[in-house]
Structures are given as C-alpha cells and as structure tokens.
C-alpha cells in the first residue's frame, strides 16, 4: 500500500465529506451515466456516493499500488493465495472451465458434477429408495457455516425455480430445537440426510448427524439400511465412512475450496435438489461471467473492484464501522446472513499476510434484511441516527409473481429510500410546510427539529432484470470478488479463519467443566455460570 496515495485520499476525504451528494448531481447531469455500469446481467448504480473523478482516480492508484491486477490473476490461476494454509482458493474453477486446476483434478471435478446430476435425477424420479422401498420425499442438509448458509441462501433465492419433487430442509444449529422441529414433521422412511462438512469434524454437524441417525434407528430402520438415508459431502472420506456412509455415497470436496466459498461444489447439492441440476449449472455460468468480468475489465469499469474500493473508501477514510445490505426481494432474505459469513469471516482480520499488525481498519460489521420490512424496523436510524452507514440496495426489475402493482411499489420503495437517504429534509423546508399548514410559531419551533432528516447518506443500488439462477450466480461472485479486492488493499488473507478455531477449542474446556465435579481451569465468570447451570439443570 502506497503511503502517499493513502495520505492523498485522507486529504481528499476532508474536502468531499463537506459536499452534498445531491449537489454533485446538480453540477453534473451525466453523473448517473458516469457512475453506473452493467456486467454479467447486473447493473450497479454507484452515483449516490461521496465520489468525484478525483476520488476514483486516487482509489484506482491505490488498487494499482497494491498490485490488484496481478493478485486477481493469482486468485484465478490457482496461486496459493491462502498463504497461512498454504493453498489456493479456487472456487472460481468450479464455475468456469477449471482454470487453475491440473487435468486430473479437473476430471474429478467434472465427475463430481455428473454424479451430482445423477443423484438429483434419482431423487427427482423417485429412484432413490429408502429402507421400506419407498422413494425419498424429503432431504435434510445437516451442515453449518459455509456448509449451510450458501445453500440455504441460494435455494431460498431460487424458490420460483423449485422443481417441487423433494422437500429440502436445513439443520445447522447445535440447539436441539432446530433438529427436533424438522424431525417432528418428517417420515424417517422417506427422508434422506446430507451430512455436509468439509472437515467432517465440526461438532454441530457431527452431533446433529448422530442424532438423526439415532432417530432413524429408533424408528425401526436397521443398521444395514442406514446407508439408504445418509449421503455426505466432505474432504474427509475416512471420517465420513467411519460415520457409516458408504464411500460411493460420499461426494468429494477439496481443500482448495474454502467453506464460505463452497456452494459451487457438491456442498451446493441442496440447491441442485431443489431447483434441478440445469438451474444449478446456470448459477455456475452466471458466476463464471462475473469472474471473466473481474479478470478483464479495467478497474474503473470493474464492478467487484469498484464495490471493494468503495468499501475501503468508507471503512478507512470515513471510518464507518458497519455496512448494510438490503435486498428488496423477498427471496433474497437470506442474502445478508450469507454475506455476514462471507465478508466478516473472510476479512475480519488484524494481521497482514506476513503476520504483522495491520496498518488500517479492516472489515467492520455487516447487517441487513429484506426490504420493505426494514423500512419499518431500522430505517429510522439510517435516516435520523448519528452514524453513517454505506448501504447496498438490491432490487430486481421484475417479480416472478406479479400481483397487481405490488412489485412496482416495491421497486419504488427501494428507490425512494435511496433518494430520501441522499436528499434528507431541511429545517427550512419543514418550517415552510408547517407554516403552510397553519401551525403556530411555538409549535414550529418545538416540533420542526424532530422532523429534520439530514440526508447525504451514501448508497449503491444493484439491479437486474430478474433474480434468475444466472443473475444470482453473478451476484454471489460479485460479492466474493468485492471481498477479495478489499483483502488485497488491506493486505490480509481472506481465506483463513483462525479466530473461529479458538472458540471451538475453548468450548471443549467449558463442556468438560460442565460434566466434571471440579470446574477445571476456567475463569471466575465462566465457572460461576457453569455452577448456575449445574444447579438449575433439570
Ligand atoms: O465457522 C467456521 C467454519 O470453519 C467455516 O469456515 C465453515 O464454513 C464451517 O466452520 C463449517 O465447517 P465444515 O464444513 O468443515 O463443517
């Protein structure tokens, strides 16, 4: 990272933060044309931001000074970008033509996709039979983190493409409430579990899978028939066979695919089961289109690069700590949770790639939910709160289920929020309106300040004709590459997650304290809570 460019950006920020975004539109009627672009079926309007030509030029220099172009090549051609685990991050090879993979691996990847296709057909055609000889009616994906969030998000987003052949359900939480809720309504003889775990050692997944197996047995399914009700997706074939899953029912995964980037692999089986293999492949094609754009477009016309640089702009120069994501598409309601893992697990880091403390802030928090519900929950804070949040709005032009003018209103709501966030409402305007309504001067003085909306809040709007498998694939790849762009600027490794490992290790200590007479070596607060648990446990 070039210090001079960084300082120039700091200086530039103090000037631009004093401007009104709305004024930038008045000064330049071409602003929308200049600061919007299309790629891979998506359209990004980033004109409602604190940016000018100078901002983009400086951010462009910043990207160049970090060698972003060659780092993109490193990612896409299989260099070991995950340096702390000494491996590449080649999720892109799963949606393209295998770029970055050797011929043998490419062959295995293709075989895996055709196995997935056969498996999906067997389920859809009623050819996969359970212990009683009846076809499978429901599939439960047992997995957590990347082995859950991506598949849940994409299969929810593609609900209009549901083939309605087999019910698809998800269990992730170690809380037995979630598993019980599913099992209560399922028939063990027509249910198939997919144990999705890259490592096959994650405690939540292991325990849920064991409980599901016990449930099958308790309902009379014999040990020798258990294999008809369980398949797995994992890199750890030994542990999966040890669990009792036949090797031919294990779909391979590879260490060069990170958990939160794995929905493109066989971890995406629940998506393919819900919407069919053709639609799954269409999603892969959409992702690949975004990869090609990321690889070839100049930075100024590169959608993921622009999103990444804008995020850096706000995080490091406006010191914003939270980014908000609001899809105005009900089926995309899981997209914010999926992005939380993608963005925060990838870039919530505080040392550089070579282990030194970072010189700047890295990823802050991500939160969001589907609009228009959000307007009636947290938008008050966006409009009148004291914090500034950059927000991404996502809204398709067409609904899969147009009913009356509802979708038009949804779209209008979305745009009007971005407009209101930019324009706000001045004290003078409000006073004028109140006078027009015949309010007393006393009331105006008392009430008008409460109605002021400062505005000048930055937003991006992403739109597309419709949320289809292709555009969804492009959208996911867009955010993956935005995350990578940020990581290059911040000089951090986006592909490891050592912080999560600590929680896993420490939970064993606490469990041991809960199940032993003496609490062991734990702190006073945790020991007190453990004692409370023991005392009140029924
Ligand atoms: O939450 C940490 C994590 O390691 C994620 O990165 C991963 O997606 C998740 O656990 C699940 O891991 P696995 O697929 O190995 O069960």
Describe this structure in words.
It is a single chain. By secondary structure, the chain is α/β, with parallel strands linked by helices. It is built from 21 helices and eleven strands. A six-stranded mixed beta sheet has the order 1-2-11-10-8-9, with helices on both faces. A five-stranded parallel beta sheet has the order 4-3-5-6-7, sandwiched between helices. Helix 10 links the parallel strand 6 (230-234) and strand 7 (250-252). The longest helix has 22 residues, at 103-124. The chain starts with a helix and ends with a helix. The mean pLDDT is 96. The structure holds 6-O-phosphono-beta-D-fructofuranose (F6P). 6-O-phosphono-beta-D-fructofuranose binds next to loops.
Quick structural gist:
The protein is an alpha/beta fold. It contains 21 helices and 11 strands.
Helix/strand/pairing class, anyone?
Answer: alpha/beta
| Total E-strand runs | 11
What is the first-to-last residue Cα distance? 57 Å
Q: Return residue spans where pLDDT drops below 50 for at least 5 consecutive residues.
A: none
Observed structural traits:
five-stranded parallel beta sheet, 21 helices, six-stranded mixed beta sheet, 538 residues, binds 6-O-phosphono-beta-D-fructofuranose, alpha/beta, 49% helix
Fold blueprint:
Elements: H1 3-16, H2 21-27, H3 31-34, E1 36-39, E2 42-45, H4 53-65, H5 68-76, H6 103-124, E3 138-142, H7 149-157, E4 167-171, H8 176-184, E5 191-196, H9 203-218, E6 230-234, H10 237-243, E7 250-252, H11 269-275, H12 277-296, H13 303-317, E8 322-327, H14 335-347, E9 365-368, H15 379-384, E10 391-396, H16 406-423, H17 427-436, H18 441-451, E11 459-464, H19 469-490, H20 498-515, H21 524-536
Parallel strand pairs: 3-4, 3-5, 5-6, 6-7, 8-9, 8-10, 10-11
Antiparallel strand pairs: 1-2, 2-11
6-O-phosphono-beta-D-fructofuranose (F6P) binds next to loops.
């Amino acid at each position: 990272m070039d210090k001079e460019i960084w300082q120039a950006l700091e200086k530039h920020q103090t000037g631009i933060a004093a401007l009104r975004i709305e004024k930038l539109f008045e000064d330049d009627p071409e602003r929308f044309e200049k600061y919007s672009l299309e790629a891979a079926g998506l359209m990004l309007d980033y004109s409602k931001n604190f940016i000018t030509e100078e901002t983009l030029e400086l951010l462009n220099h910043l990207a160049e000074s970090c060698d972003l172009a060659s780092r993109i090549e490193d990612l896409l051609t299989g260099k070991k970008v995950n340096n702390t685990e000494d491996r590449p991050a080649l999720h892109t090879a799963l949606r393209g033509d295998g770029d970055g993979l050797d011929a043998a691996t490419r062959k295995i990847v293709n075989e895996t996709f055709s196995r997935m296709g056969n498996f999906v057909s067997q389920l859809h055609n009623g050819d996969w039979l359970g212990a009683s000889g009846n076809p499978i009616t429901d599939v439960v994906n047992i997995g957590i983190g990347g082995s859950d969030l991506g598949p849940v998000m994409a299969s929810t987003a593609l609900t209009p493409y549901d083939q309605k052949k087999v019910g698809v359900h998800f269990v992730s939480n170690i809380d037995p409430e979630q598993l019980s809720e599913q099992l209560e309504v399922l028939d063990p003889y027509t249910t198939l579990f997919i144990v999705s775990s890259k490592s096959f050692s994650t405690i939540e997944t292991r325990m849920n899978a064991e409980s599901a197996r016990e449930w099958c047995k308790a309902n009379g399914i014999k040990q020798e028939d258990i294999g008809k009700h369980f398949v797995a997706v994992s890199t750890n074939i030994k542990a999966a066979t040890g669990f009792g899953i036949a090797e031919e029912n294990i779909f391979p995964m590879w260490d060069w695919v990170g958990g939160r980037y794995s929905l493109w692999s066989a971890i995406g089986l629940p998506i393919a089961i819900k919407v069919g293999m053709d639609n799954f492949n269409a999603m892969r094609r959409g992702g690949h289109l975004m990869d090609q754009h990321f690889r070839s477009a100049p930075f100024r016309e590169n959608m993921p690069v622009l999103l990444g640089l804008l995020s850096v702009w706000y995080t490091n120069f406006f010191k914003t700590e939270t980014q908000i994501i609001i899809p105005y598409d009900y089926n995309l309601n899981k997209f914010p949770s999926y992005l939380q893992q993608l963005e925060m697990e990838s870039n919530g880091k505080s040392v550089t790639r070579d282990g030194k403390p970072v010189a700047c802030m890295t990823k802050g928090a991500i939160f969001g939910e589907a609009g228009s519900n959000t307007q009636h929950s947290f938008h008050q804070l966006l409009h009148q709160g004291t914090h500034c949040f950059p927000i991404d709005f996502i809204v398709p032009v067409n609904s899969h289920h147009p009913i009356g003018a509802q979708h038009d209103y949804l779209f209008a709501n979305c745009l009007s929020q971005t407009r209101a966030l930019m324009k706000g409402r001045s004290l003078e305007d409000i006073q004028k309106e109140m006078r027009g309504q015949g309010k007393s001067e006393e009331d105006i003085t008392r009430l008008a300040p409460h109605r002021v909306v400062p505005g000048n809040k930055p937003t991006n709007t992403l739109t597309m004709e419709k949320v289809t498998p292709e555009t969804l694939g492009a959208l996911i790849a867009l955010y993956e590459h935005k995350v990578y762009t940020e990581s290059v600027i911040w000089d951090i490794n986006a592909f490891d997650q050592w912080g999560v490992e600590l929680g896993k290790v420490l939970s064993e200590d606490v469990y041991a304290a809960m199940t032993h007479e003496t609490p062991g070596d734990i702190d006073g607060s945790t020991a007190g809570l453990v004692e409370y648990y023991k005392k009140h446990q029924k």
